[in-house]
Amino acid sequence: MARTGARRARRYDPDRRTRILDAALDVMAEHGTAGTTHRTIAARADVPLGSVTYHFASLADLQAQAFARYVELQSATFEKLFEDVETHEQFVEVLVDLVHGGPARHRSAVLGFELHLAALRNPDLRVLTQAWTWESRAVLARFTGPGTAARLDALLEGMIMHALLAAEPEPREATRAAIVQTLGPATHTPRGDP
Amino acid sequence: MARTGARRARRYDPDRRTRILDAALDVMAEHGTAGTTHRTIAARADVPLGSVTYHFASLADLQAQAFARYVELQSATFEKLFEDVETHEQFVEVLVDLVHGGPARHRSAVLGFELHLAALRNPDLRVLTQAWTWESRAVLARFTGPGTAARLDALLEGMIMHALLAAEPEPREATRAAIVQTLGPATHTPRGDP
Amino acid sequence: MARTGARRARRYDPDRRTRILDAALDVMAEHGTAGTTHRTIAARADVPLGSVTYHFASLADLQAQAFARYVELQSATFEKLFEDVETHEQFVEVLVDLVHGGPARHRSAVLGFELHLAALRNPDLRVLTQAWTWESRAVLARFTGPGTAARLDALLEGMIMHALLAAEPEPREATRAAIVQTLGPATHTPRGDP
Amino acid sequence: MARTGARRARRYDPDRRTRILDAALDVMAEHGTAGTTHRTIAARADVPLGSVTYHFASLADLQAQAFARYVELQSATFEKLFEDVETHEQFVEVLVDLVHGGPARHRSAVLGFELHLAALRNPDLRVLTQAWTWESRAVLARFTGPGTAARLDALLEGMIMHALLAAEPEPREATRAAIVQTLGPATHTPRGDP
DNA sequence: TATGAATGAGCATTCATTCAT
DNA sequence: GATGAATGAATGCTCATTCAT
């Protein structure tokens, strides 16, 4: 039978919940929190409207769970970025990539800022931003020590935002220089600073 | 329903336009871009609804002009912050204040992030973010040189966001240390680096 | 131009508010409080949906105002019923008509019960039911004295409800007998009981 | 969203049907016909949503059966009220109690009016209102004769409604007077009038 | 048999915008 | 010029009902 129609009958559909969450993140990245509606999400997830309201008590609830999923996925991704880092140079290179990341990084970067802004007004979301901050600092601290990690974290956040908004990309060299300067002269060993 | 507040007849009201823009900024700071509507703004400005649509062609237009006003005011404010700075120590102190600014700074910081996020999706707003970035870097560069200014700008942005979201304020000492480290050892003279 | 179309442009339309209230009463009489929605009312009043929500802050508000209008109109109508009553017999006859009133009375009777039931759950509506009770007792008391008026009022209410629900109409004779018995032997004079 | 309350597995549950009906009556008494939904009823009966739709073909059906149960229970209760009545005075006293019944009577009174109003629009329910009217008149008639019973029935209905709505309870004396006057001078014997 | 998931229709309400006055 | 009324589109959400398991 025609299986490519507007919507196939999908009475049995586990992980629909998760699909909705991912669709919500997509929509939020594209249209911002303001443009995120039950209908847009439903369309993106290829799911009837009622399905979205069935699985989530409210739009705010859906948003919160989507952000939670984002932090969870992002933490894993972030961790993996540094998995194979063995030298100081590799570490720096990964960070530069992070800032200059192409469209692939775009989505997650935008979502990150969207989450930050949302958390500014919704204290319930603070646990997520705090978890995310703590997590990323912890990963960085394995290479730099805690103090430098916090500084680096802030610097990266600022540079990523600027990179997203810049008319033309800043040269990688400038980014690298900023990172190296922030890391300071002492950090030569790949893991931890004594 | 027709909600008629107690509103005095205001026959001659030359800076109503400006009052509306300021009200819009207030509302945006409080409720975010999403919660900013003609009605909320009109109520905040204590002006009839029709007045808002009369003075501005569309909500997007009003928003853009409000952001423009924000950048203009903010640039002046930022400039003034450094007016009396004469020593390296004073410079650092002003920057630390910037990050730990109390509720007074809160509004403008939130609006800054709101503008950044809006600009991410609306290219028309990029001229504003670019002007603002250029402007603040220029001011900083008077004390640090251009390269350091860019780094410092990014660091401050990241730290301000973290400060806004932190459960409990980070110690001023950590902030100061981050700034001092970013300024580097060479920057001793208050004005410009050779 | 075609003026009989689905909806004529009606930019200038005073007493639209009142028309909406009357439409609301019509709908409530026909479909009950449960079936009364913005949309049904708008359709009945031949007015766009937005017009209903523009003029009334909420559906509850609209309902309350409609009931208020009902009580107001009904009081006047009730009063007028007894305008020309001069003899005891005429008085009795008007009351019997009240109970056996045809479809013309049907609407108002149903609305009356609808209001009573609504007031049971919404204390704000109690002022209306109390005004209405007080008013009708006052009119009746002009012919019977206060004590009898209250009894009569209750009796009429019960009989009207039974008449509305009866499979086949009770004989006017029985109604008259009940009324006469309630009025008691003393009430001969058309106005007031000594 | 899937709201899973703490619900014990209830494998063998023979009178679940009845429990649902009683829950429906509770909900109807509290929130009115309008607020009576499958979900509210299920929650009140502490039963899964599917269980309500499983046992009853439609909401209208459930409502009708609930009303039927109400009439059945109410008839028995009403009958029992007069079981021990032996004198005229006792009879009057029971009737006065009926009107001034406290919160215990509140539920059934409200449900009675709810049923009457529903029957006004749904002819299927008329068999219930007629049965109920016939039944209560029959009980009363055992003490008064048929004519007086009908009058009394109407009077009681009106007085009960007024009592429910009155800001402050009318004095029992007035109620008693109304009843005594309606019973008339002849009714002295406890059972039947020849 | 019992039930959680699913869905389409409908509802109250908000809102940007237009327009007659 | 200024504004209250008006309106059509959209939004968050609820709900009766169906159905696969």
From TrEMBL, chains A, B, C, D:
It holds the Pfam family TetR_N. Keywords: DNA-binding. The keyword Mitochondrion does not apply. Residues 37-56 bind DNA. The keyword Glycosyltransferase does not apply. GO terms for molecular function: DNA-binding transcription factor activity; transcription cis-regulatory region binding. Residues 14-74 form the HTH tetR-type domain. This is TetR family transcriptional regulator. It comes from Nonomuraea terrae.
